[in-house]
Design goal:
By secondary structure, the protein is of the alpha+beta class. It has a single domain, classed as DD-peptidase/beta-lactamase superfamily (Beta-lactamase, 3-Layer(aba) Sandwich). 32% of the residues lie in helices and 18% in strands. It is built from 13 helices and 13 strands. An eight-stranded antiparallel beta sheet has the order 1-3-2-12-11-10-9-8, with helices on both faces. A hairpin with a 4-residue loop joins strand 9 and strand 10 (328-338). 49% of the residues are buried. Residues 1-14 and 19-29 have low confidence and may be disordered.
Length: 388
């Protein structure tokens, strides 16, 4: 998705940043070039509009910053680095971590057919496995594409009518399961939010607890994610200070759609978590350093397959190549589309370099200079993640 600069936001554009160095930071050979980062952030914010939040970490050195305003009003407050955002599909890394923990406790095998645990949920003769659901090789159709078919072409009719509708997970799965499998499980790759709804149901079935409680106990608390939560069922909105999430529509009469009131049931296990850029860096650090997963589990999650595109995929983790000047480097993490909020959280293989950025306007209408947007985001990412 691409974004354009909004004149009102451009006039109010301001950068708020701080560098924090922990004890022993001087021992690190990588030093954050904050002047360069500020320049890259300003260039990206000029393309993205709205607000942009970012946190970069090299070892013990941390730089966190915000640009722009929390909404498009003339008197909007400036964005702050700790503002909450709907992280979208970055949630999938958290849901996958819980599934892997349950596998480690002997409550499931990743190669179990899902019907062994949730009999009758999926009507297909070829029953996908837990691993295939985690990896998007299940063939289960993506329910969002079925519920909102017009978004890709700029038709928001279904979205306007349905974005506040509350769904039970079974109803979401039923929308997708009314269609045939996209392919025989294990034979291809296709991104499926439905698959992660099924995994959320699996977690609740095996533990007897709500997904949000399992995420709190198994992920948020041990990783010290103090500003992160999965909203309660049947609710909408975002708790605490946050930027308003907007979607551009291409409609001159309604150019920006405020998606704050999206029902939290629609994103749930595949995209419903609300967090901050700092908490997301902490999450991926905890994921790789042994707080949440064993070394063997993390290695399994980060065994990436070629998806046929620029985004390789493992078990709830994605991998991309970034251009570091003298060659490309693979970094891991996840993209997240929170219907308005857009988040990217990527990290070096050794865990020493961490980068999360989130912006508040999702340009589904394709406005703006796409090449300039891509270059500005690529430059910011490379400055944040390539070795100094």
């Amino acid at each position: 998705m691409r974004t354009k600069m909004i004149p009102a936001a451009a006039a109010a554009l301001g950068l708020v940043g701080v560098l924090a160095a922990g004890q022993g930071a001087a021992a690190h050979t990588r030093e954050l070039d904050t002047e360069h980062l500020e320049s890259r952030l300003e260039a990206f914010a000029a393309q993205a509009g709205g607000s942009v939040l970012v946190q970069v970490e090299h070892g013990d050195d941390t730089w966190t910053a915000a640009a722009g305003t929390r909404d498009l009003g003339a008197d909007s407050a400036p964005a702050r680095p700790g503002d909450r955002v709907r992280i979208g599909s970055v949630t999938k890394s958290m849901t996958a971590a819980v599934v892997l923990q349950l596998e480690g406790e002997g409550l499931l095998d990743l190669d179990d057919p899902i019907g062994d645990h949730l009999p009758g949920l999926l009507p297909y003769e070829a029953d996908p496995t837990v691993r295939q659901l985690l990896q998007h090789t299940s063939g289960v159709p993506d329910w969002l594409k079925l519920a909102y078919p017009g978004i890709g072409s700029g038709d928001f009719t279904e979205l306007y009518a349905g974005y506040r509708t509350h769904y039970e997970p079974e109803a979401i799965v039923a929308i997708a399961a009314a269609e045939d499998l996209d392919f025989k499980p294990g034979t291809d790759w296709s991104y499926s939010n439905t698959g992660y709804t099924v995994l959320g149901m699996l977690i609740e079935e095996l533990t007897g607890n709500r997904l949000r409680d399992e995420l709190e106990e198994r992920v948020f608390e041990p990783a010290d994610l103090d500003r992160t939560y999965l909203p309660r069922d049947g609710t909408a909105g975002i708790r605490g200070p946050h930027a308003v999430p907007y979607v551009t529509t291409g409609d001159p009469g309604r150019p920006y759609f405020d998606a704050t009131a999206l029902s939290n049931t629609q994103t749930w296990a595949g995209g419903g978590v609300i967090s901050t850029v700092g908490d997301l860096n902490d999450f991926y650090e905890a994921l790789s350093e042994g707080t949440l997963l064993t070394a063997e589990q993390f290695a399994a999650a980060s065994a990436f397959m070629d998806t046929g595109g620029s985004y390789d995929y493992g078990l709830g983790l994605g991998a991309v190549e970034i251009d570091c000047g003298e060659g490309e480097e693979q970094v891991y993490g996840h993209h997240g589309d929170g219907l308005g909020h857009q988040t990217q959280s990527f990290h070096s293989a050794d865990g020493e370099r961490r980068f999360t950025v989130s912006w508040s306007i999702d340009d589904k209408a394709g406005y703006g200079d796409e090449d300039a947007f891509d270059k500005a985001l690529s430059d910011l990412t490379a400055t944040a993640l390539c070795e100094a």
